[in-house]
Amino acid sequence: MEEPVNSPFAVQDGLKCLLLSAIAVGAISALPTVATAAMPTNPVSDPQFTRLPNGRDLTSISVKGSRLYLAKGTGTAFGASAKAAYAKLKADSQSNPDHRVQWVLMDLDGHQVVDMSLAHNRKIFGASSSKPFVGAALLDKQGGDLSSSQLQLMSDMIVVSSNTAWTNLQTQAGGGNSTKGREVVHTFTQRMGYERTRGFQGYWGTLHGNELTAHESAEFLHDTYKGNYPGAETLWKIMHACRTGSSRGRKYIPSNIYVGGKTGTYDGPTENPETGKTKNPDGSSYRVAVRNHLLVFNIGGRQYALTILADTGSDESAAVLAGGLIREYLGVK
Description:
five-stranded antiparallel β-sheet; two-stranded antiparallel sheet; Beta-lactamase; alpha+beta; 11 strands
């Protein structure tokens, strides 16, 4: 997927000049507040990172009775057993196209893949890892603006993974119609170039939603970091307050590193994302045990994304991958 050639900053600068000229001649008496993306940004170098485009501070928002805060790594020691598990998982996932774990480590600043699994573009059930796509589609449709109630629902959906907020926002994306909401989400992902992604919840007609690929999920995080759609800054910052994943990708990341993202968990029957079938060849129901984790973090002055789609039933697969990759490639001790 090619790097977008149109700079959002150039467009914003041009609009700003036009607006200032209009004000100077009295053509415009009052301007609306527009949530434009001041991207890229990260919590390491930006002292105002928690400030949202609408002026609201993340730390003023409460979810489940407590204020939002920027999440960090858990800091669990990466011992010999974890190192061995990482080496095996990495080798197996880079040699077996049917492996249950698919992943991509991407340098978001350079828009370059550092390393990835063999079948990084194979579809895997997304579970709650699909929620950011719904949030992005709603923001895009509304030009980056959210009402106060929508901002609260977005925080509930991303920070503590509320399913009620998820379906509510998807329906709002469709103007109160859940079917239309699914269409809006799918149109957004296809327009952005995520061809195999099915980021909506449920079925849109006969099309099964909630299917992701590790590669396209990394591209989505890159587009969010770069502000390549309206409202990306809001979603990017809320993802840095996600409270889940302490036993997954955050587990072996040092406690001084900020970690954003979104997890996804589901055990049960579904449709095989690659075949569209609900039954295995032996007639049994197709079932998954998903323990996904989409992560973003800043190490050594560069921003990275690590997308892990794991149908393993174990949090440790995401944990050892994140812990091993940042040590092997990014110089973390």
